[in-house]
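Please decode residue identities from the backbone states below.
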């Protein structure tokens, strides 16, 4: 069982500190025919974004009922009700799990499902580039965000309803899918010519979102895996991704690439099959594949988890930082499927091995330190043993030939050793295996930085040495002797930094 020692000052210990060392030195229409408030002066209830699984609030239920009463006319290109209907649906699924399920069930119902088909039909008749841009922004984007939302695609309750919506996207022989993606690709090709009003997503984000929709359409309709329209769409999107993919938006570029890789693998499987029309539909389980994954560093959808979260492993510090220890987000761990990694080939293999080994080594350590910091009590729920030493104060710095910079730290003698005589105290330190050579020591200073040390071999575990005749050297008598058992009230340990980079040395000094 690994052991971690924590040294802290008792008088100044707070719940956020683990080792305190004072280093001295057009209004939509409702069902009753009355106009709703226009978009620029909406009086709908604003519900803070917080996807919950408990009982929805009354305000959320009221908003859901108001949405159900809307009567959109998507066949009319400039119909504001359709815009409001899709925007409100997207807002609703952001709030509550059960509300999101109700929205999807309503959209996939017999009376509402044709609305999705009618929403896509004007794409072929819209004449001007401005009309196409308006349809993309106010119809296609919200619709795509609805059907790819995590509370929707991850729900078993509305699994059938989601599949019905994706089949509407597909159409007969993938003709509607070809129309939809032809519309999207045309806008992407002319993106720079469009004067977008207000906030809108970027071209690469549009490509990424479209790739996710296409991947899920194929996932729910295996009979179209060898459709020529689908193959043509994939080639067109791949070409645009190569043109519009940029380092400035690495997350969406990587996500789009992963979706396309998944689609290509599915299409390769389809093309390798014999005549699919003579093969009965399989009822077996589909291969497990995670379409979305929260990548590391700046590739993460929600931004970096902490200051030690990087896409490139060479930038990762071996020991956890204070932000990493206190972070509530799960660390990025690559799956066994190499197609889901953010790096491919040998670099991807090395990346995966490093991250898994580091997490296996440090997970319990982070949990133990975090628990000790937050609760200021003994850690009982992790495998890593944490021993806390109180009233730590640095008393000296020295340089050793082999270990380099070392710190001499004084702390309170453990209560069990304090009542013993000097010789018995030396035996106690030897037999209890505390602060043995190489033991890990974590120190959190008042500035909030975390430093990791190892116990140096220079640490004295016996009382002051005497010569063979029992006579003490006069020079030794004058020099201070720092050891674990020498003093009844205080123990002294020699520590060396685990990481000796410039920043760590500066922080320790």
């Amino acid at each position: 069982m690994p052991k971690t020692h924590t040294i802290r000052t008792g008088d100044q210990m707070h719940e956020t500190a683990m080792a305190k060392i004072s280093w001295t030195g057009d209004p939509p229409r409702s069902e009753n025919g009355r106009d709703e408030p226009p978009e620029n002066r909406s009086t709908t209830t604003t519900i803070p974004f917080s996807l919950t699984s408990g009982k929805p609030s009354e305000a959320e239920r009221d908003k859901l009922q108001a949405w159900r009463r809307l009567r959109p006319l998507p066949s009319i290109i400039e119909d504001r009700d359709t815009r409001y209907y899709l925007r409100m649906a997207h807002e609703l699924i952001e709030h509550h799990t059960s509300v999101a399920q109700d929205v999807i069930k309503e959209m996939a119902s017999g009376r509402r499902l044709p609305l999705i088909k009618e929403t896509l039909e004007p794409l072929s008749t819209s004449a001007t580039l401005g009309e196409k841009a308006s349809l993309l922004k106010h119809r296609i984007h919200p619709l795509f965000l609805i059907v790819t939302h995590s509370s929707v695609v991850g729900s078993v309750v509305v699994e059938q309803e989601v599949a019905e919506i994706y089949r509407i996207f597909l159409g007969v022989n993938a003709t509607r899918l070809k129309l939809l993606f032809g519309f999207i690709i045309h806008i992407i090709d002319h993106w720079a010519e469009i004067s977008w009003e207000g906030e809108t997503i970027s071209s690469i984000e549009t490509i990424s979102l479209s790739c996710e929709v296409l991947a899920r359409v194929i996932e729910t309709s295996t009979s179209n895996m060898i459709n020529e329209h689908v193959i043509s769409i994939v080639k067109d999107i791949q070409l645009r991704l190569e043109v519009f993919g940029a380092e400035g938006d690495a997350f969406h570029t990587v996500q789009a690439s992963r979706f396309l890789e998944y689609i290509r693998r599915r299409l390769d499987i389809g093309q390798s099959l014999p005549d699919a029309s003579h093969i009965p539909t399989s009822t077996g389980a589909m291969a497990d594949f995670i379409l979305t994954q929260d990548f590391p560093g700046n590739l993460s959808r929600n931004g970096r988890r902490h200051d030690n979260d990087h896409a490139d492993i060479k930038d990762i510090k071996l020991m956890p930082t204070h932000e990493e220890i206190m972070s509530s987000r799960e660390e990025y761990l690559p799956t066994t499927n190499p197609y889901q990694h953010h790096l491919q080939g040998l670099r991807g293999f090395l990346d995966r091995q490093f991250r898994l080994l580091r997490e296996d080594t440090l997970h319990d350590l982070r949990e133990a330190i975090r628990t000790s910091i937050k609760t200021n009590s003994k850690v009982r729920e992790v495998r890593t043993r944490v021993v806390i030493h109180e009233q730590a104060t640095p008393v000296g710095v020295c340089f050793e030939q082999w270990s380099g910079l070392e710190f001499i730290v004084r702390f309170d003698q453990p209560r069990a050793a304090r009542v013993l005589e000097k010789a018995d105290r030396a035996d106690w330190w030897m037999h209890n295996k505390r602060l043995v050579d190489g033991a890990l020591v974590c120190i959190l200073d008042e500035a909030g930085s975390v430093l990791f040390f190892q116990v140096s071999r220079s640490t004295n575990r016996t009382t002051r040495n005497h010569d063979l005749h029992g006579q003490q050297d006069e020079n030794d008598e004058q020099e201070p002797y720092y050891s674990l058992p020498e003093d009844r009230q205080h123990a002294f340990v020699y520590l060396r930094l685990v990481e000796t980079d410039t920043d760590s040395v500066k922080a320790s000094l």
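Observation: Confidence is low (pLDDT under 50) at residues 9-50, 275-290, 466-470.
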